[in-house]
Amino acid sequence: MNKLTRAKPEAIRSVDEITAGRRLRRMRKADWSRRLVQESHLRVDDLIWPIFLIEGKKRQEEIAAMPGVFRYSVDLAVLQAERAAKLGIPALATFPNIDMSRRDARGSAILDPDNLINQATRAIKEAVPGIGVITDVALDPFTNHGHDGILSEGVIVNDETVAQIAEAAVLQAAAGSDVIAPSDMMDGRIGAIRDALDGNGFQDVAIMSYATKFASAFYGPYREAIGTGGLLKGDKKTYYIDPANTDEALRETEQDLAEGADMVMVKPGLPYLDIVRRLKDSFAVPTFAYQVSGEYAMIKAAAANGWLDGDRAMMESLLAFKRAGCDGILTYFALEAAEILAVR
Fold first, then answer.
1. What is the mean pLDDT of residues 211-221?
2. Which pLDDT score is estimated for 234?
3. Annotated catalytic residue, options 3, 236, 237, 267
């Protein structure tokens, strides 16, 4: 076996010869120069805050799997909306946890004009008219089986579900929702919702399509938050996208845009940044990502154990969405991030 010999200093080219004089560290040497050439920027305007709702008054419940995240009764949700608006957060996305007595196989309570989502929308828009309210018409918070659609003989029936969520979208718009954001992944839902909204005088209500919602393992804490974690039988692979597929994600997005979506979303977020980039490059439309409950919980748990700097990891993860091409991010970190951004 030959022994390694140390290279003679005169045999090694100078750094300037190796780099042809291109020293890329020059612009990293000082804070002012790093700021001057920073390519991606996170602003409070990029943040959408998802909040969870519960029935009653003056109720606030922390979600065990999501430290720092709470369910709020409508009166307290209004106060949280005021807090978010003062920080400059442009919009909220609301998700209800209703009593089990109001859930059935069809998710019928979504058609109640005075259900928890619609109550919250009316109250928030009255108190904080300048903040956007985004509402979901998926049925999972309203079903007794935890699926996003109507369950019939073990099958999620597409067309009946679409008809019901289109009707629910009109009720949500009537309550004051600014953006309908269907997350159910049923075929044809965007076109049906657009027709229903336009036919009822809500042409100005936008649609944010969960265009690429994947059958992910990262949703667990969310299902606890809306009370569906112990209900779900089977899985959602017959209507969510396989995590292995990217071309299918493009086809779903193209279809939703053709049907009338104004914005598209990728869910989950960080594990699917390649999808974000591909959608933005392919369609050049407003593109959002949902930093889901599992992503939030991982950062919080690691920070609680002292394994990483929670604030830095949070801000770095949010910046990654901007770098990938996101116009905005739904994140449970919205308030914390907005507070940090306010003092920068």
1. 94
2. 75
3. 267
Residue type, 71: R
**Which residue in the list 125, 213, 236, 322 is annotated as catalytic?**
213
DSSP 8-state symbol, 203 = T
Q: What is the length of the chain?
A: 344
The end-to-end CA distance of the chain, in Å, is: 58
The mean pLDDT of 115-128, rounded to a whole number, is 98
CA 30 – CA 215 distance, rounded (Å): 44
pLDDT at 50 > cutoff 80: yes
Q: Reply yes or no on whether the pLDDT at 1 is more than 60.
A: no
Annotation marks residue 236 as catalytic: no
Superfamily of domain 41-342: Aldolase class I (3.20.20.70)
Domain extents in the chain: 41-342
b/e 181-220 (16+ beta carbons within 10 angstroms → b): bbbbbbebbbbbbbebbeeeebeebbbbbbbbbbbbebbe
Decide: pTM greater than 0.70: yes
Q: Which helix (H) or strand (E) holds 52?
A: strand 47-54
Q: Residue 329 above 60 pLDDT?
A: yes
Q: How far apart are CA 258 and CA 209, in angstroms?
A: 12
Q: How confident is the model at residue 2 (pLDDT cuts 50, 70, 90)?
A: low
Active site residue 267: yes
8-state DSSP, 231 = T
In contact, 134 and 178? CB cutoff 8 Å: yes
Are the C-beta atoms of 65 and 221 separated by less than 8 Å?
yes
Asked if 294 and 221 touch (Cβ cutoff 8 Å), the reply is yes
